[in-house]
Amino acid sequence: MRVTFLGTGSAMPAHDRAQTGLLVESGDRSLLVDCGSGVLSRLAGTETGYEGVGTVLLTHHHLDHVSDLLPLLKARWLAGETHLEVVGPVGTKRHLDDLLDVYEYMQNRVDLQIREVPAGSFDVGGFAVEAMEVRHSVDCLAYRFAGDGDNDGDFVFSGDSEAFEGLANFADGAAVLAHDCSFPEDVDVSGHPTPSKLGAALSGRDIGRVYLTHLYPHTEGRHEEMLESIARGYDGDVRFARDGLRIDI
Ligand SMILES: [Zn+2]
Ligand SMILES: [Zn+2]
């Protein structure tokens, strides 16, 4: 499995951090996870391109995770691609219907399939996926993508969430975990973790590598201290993700 971080930013994007988006690929299968502002351009810069991704999996419906959805739909239509599947938590159908009500000229341009998924196990774009509800200001799902063969590990994406034991358990044993780490320690926030709470939640878990993502501009220049805060609770391999980073799992 190959994971490309298309966007590692947040609702306050930076020039080098688009909003949230991840490209998950294996063999000839590809899946876009979240589609925030700037992600479509980043996707166009990959070999796969927006022509090559027929399925989008959403963690939740906040703007920084969905705002490039209709632009993706239009780009695929112009490129002659005739279908798009959008999969996400309860409310995804209504969300897409409402968007298409506003942009009437986009209706019926491509064969748009919408599927709402609960927590649990299901297939998306040929990937075996497990979902769990996380702790955010709106309904949000974390996803665990099963590795292909015996030698391939799993990939887990937290979505937007506070750090908590249940999510750490969900990620336990994975080869790679990409976790929301929106702010440095001194920012008072709910619905996202602080570095020390993330470190405490991950304590004792067996995870190959953790990538921090969903980074607000507040985190710039403070990476070292954030890693130190995490390391007080968790002694595993933790790194900052960056746009364009590609990892083979
Ligand atoms: Zn959010
Ligand atoms: Zn977000």
UniProtKB/TrEMBL annotation:
<dbReference type="InterPro" id="IPR001279">
    <property type="entry name" value="Metallo-B-lactamas"/>
</dbReference>
<protein>
    <submittedName>
        <fullName>Metal-dependent hydrolase</fullName>
    </submittedName>
</protein>
<dbReference type="GO" id="GO:0042781">
    <property type="term" value="F:3'-tRNA processing endoribonuclease activity"/>
</dbReference>
<dbReference type="Pfam" id="PF12706">
    <property type="entry name" value="Lactamase_B_2"/>
</dbReference>
<dbReference type="InterPro" id="IPR036866">
    <property type="entry name" value="RibonucZ/Hydroxyglut_hydro"/>
</dbReference>
<keyword id="KW-0378">Hydrolase</keyword>
<dbReference type="InterPro" id="IPR044094">
    <property type="entry name" value="AtsA-like_MBL-fold"/>
</dbReference>
<feature type="domain" description="Metallo-beta-lactamase">
    <location>
        <begin position="18"/>
        <end position="192"/>
    </location>
</feature>
